[in-house]
Amino acid sequence: MKKHTLRFVFLLILISVMSCDEPETVVTNYIHQDGSVTRRIEMVNHKKRFKNCRPQVPFDDTWTVHDSLNISQKGDTTWYKTAEKLFRNTEEINLSYRSDTSINKGIYRQAAFRKSFKWFNTELRFSEKIEKKMISGYPVSDFMNREELLYFYSPESLKYEKERGADSLRYRALADSVKKKTDFWNAKCVVSEWIMEFTKLIAGKAGSDLTNDSLKSRENEFVKIIENNSKFDSLWSNGVILKKFVGDSNASRFKSEADSAMEKVFKDYFFDFNDYSVRMVMPGKLIGTNGFIDSSRILLWPVKSDFFLTESYEMWAESKITNTWAWVASGIFILFVLTGLIIKVIKKD
Amino acid sequence: MKTSDDKYDKVVNLLRKSKPILDSTEDIELKVMRRIKGMDKTSYSFSNILDFLFGWVYIVWVRRSLIAGSIVLVLIFVYQQGIILNRIDVLSRQTIVPDKEIVPNPSDNIDMILMLYKNSGRKFPGKTVTISETQMKELLETVRELQIKYKDLENIIEANPELKKQIEKKLLENEQSKINL
Questions:
Q1: What CA–CA distance (Å, rounded) separates A6 from A2?
Q2: Closest CA to B63 of A340, A335, A331
Q3: Radius of gyration of chain A (CA)
Q4: Most buried among A47, A154, A173, A292, by the most CB within 10 A?
Q5: Cβ atoms of A119 and B76 closer than 8 Å
Q6: In chain B, which residue's Cα lies nearest the Cα of A75?
């Protein structure tokens, strides 16, 4: 998933992924006109029951939980868990996020609801935002074009269909290009974050050759070292990479700071997170969204760690409710003014 | 000729001087007054209503304000609808995601599932059917009860040779009727 050259970290992730069998989760928000939200969490597990599984979103005993199973004709069993709760407002959702004990508790999530009266219509906006994890990373939009970005943010099912559909060759090439650029972007972000942390730790100790700007100007060199060395972990621990990047004397002088910075970056970069999907059902007529639409006309967003690594990831939808009384009042008013003008013209004649 | 004219004048004068005899003059007077008042009232209230409703058309500043208000309302309407239609048009061009991401929603209502099963010619519409754990337990319990009752029935029949004979006869009749069909 992450940069393959960073093997030791990748191994850690692999171990953590193997150790827990997290369910596939879809969170559906049914937004009501008054700002209350019925939240439904649907979890599906193909391998075992939900015992010892930590969900991707917070839910507790106050939710209405329903367990069921499905046995296919082949005899494969799939377990389902559905949890539902009515939140009076988005503040209650945010409260549950603040006391989150789910696997994804390391990220900052918040929901917002806004209702704006615009005479003929009332516009409603619901959003869920995940704050970015890295401070010094680059936006992914700097590395990909529009088509690649759309593919990057697409749900897996859509990617699967495209890569096996009529135009599969084109989409497979696109997928490869997105993967390469994602790897490069990840490496750039790690290096940028490391430079920031490292220069913070050595501030005032080093000379002018180890300032944030001077190291930033050589950022691509460091990225290339990472990309071209599959034994990154051993080369880093031996100090070979650091020597190449900051010079022999600086490398031996600031080895502990460099390690601390790298440790901090990896901790921020490879945080505990399990992907899930968010769906929204808005009241009234939908007029805008940055999400995808599924076949049941429900809005859908995949939530993956890469999406909020360097930029906040906001899933929003807007809808409108027609104010019938405003339409009637406006119609009567315009008719009244027109009648007055006609009467005036008639009397003048 | 002169005498005939004189006579005519006398008759006319006589008719003029002799007033008609009215039975209820007061009633007539009242009726006439009511009619006059009624006519006055109708014309007076209609013009009043018109003046009250549309009197503003003669006051320049009010007329201009109301016209401006109407124009503003129309402009707001056109602007808002234009924006909304444009946004809906953008939405309609969005990619539809296939169903794979959606978790099936198991139904609690076993009756509905069974009705569907009956109405679909004893075939479930999909390749799989989703039922809850409780429903599965209910189903297994029902089958178990049915098996026990069947076993009891078998024992009763075995214990009573007369009953067994009768049932066998009935079953044979049923088989024959099936063959005839």
A1: 8
A2: A340
A3: 27
A4: A292
A5: yes
A6: B128
| Chain B: residue whose CA lies nearest to A335 | B70
Could A293 and B97 be called an inter-chain contact, meaning their C-beta atoms sit closer than 8 Å? yes
Contacts of A24 in chain B (CB under 8 A): 103
ipTM: 0.73
CA distances to A58, A262, A299, B136 from A308, rounded to whole Å, are: 19, 20, 19, 42
Burial of A258 (0-12, 13-18, 19+ CB in 10 A): buried
Q: How far is A62 from chain B (nearest CA, A)?
A: 20
C-beta atoms of A70 and B69 within 8 A: no
Q: Which residues from A are below 8 Å from B109, CB to CB?
A: none
- Distance of residue A264 Cα from the nearest chain B Cα, in angstroms: 35
Nearest of A313, A316, A312 to residue A282 by alpha carbon:
A316
- Is the torsion defined by CA of A14, A18, A24, A29 positive or negative? negative
Q: Could you tell me if A286 lies within 8 Å of chain B, comparing CB atoms? A: yes
What percent of the residues of chain A are helix, what percent strand, and what percent coil, each to the nearest 5? 45, 25, 30
Residue-wise pLDDT for B115-160, tens only, equals 545 444 444 544 456 677 777 778 888 888 888 888 888 888 888 8
Q: Which of A41-45, B63-67, B80-84 has the least mean pLDDT?
A: A41-45
Cα dihedral sign, B64-B70-B76-B82: negative
Establish if A342 touches chain B: CB-CB under 8 angstroms: no
Identify the helix (H) or strand (E) that includes residue B65.
helix B60-92
CA distance A31 to chain B (A): 18
Q: Are A239 and A262 in contact (CB under 8 A)?
A: no
Which residue reads 């999909």 in tokens? B126
Between A24 and A114, where is the model more confident? A114
Contact between chains at A295 and B97 (C-beta distance less than 8 A):
yes
Question: How would residue A149 be classed by pLDDT, with cut points 50, 70 and 90?
Answer: very high
A157 — contact with chain B (CB < 8 Å)?
A: yes
Read off the pLDDT of residues A49-61 as tens digits, 9 standing for 90 and up: 666 677 888 888 8
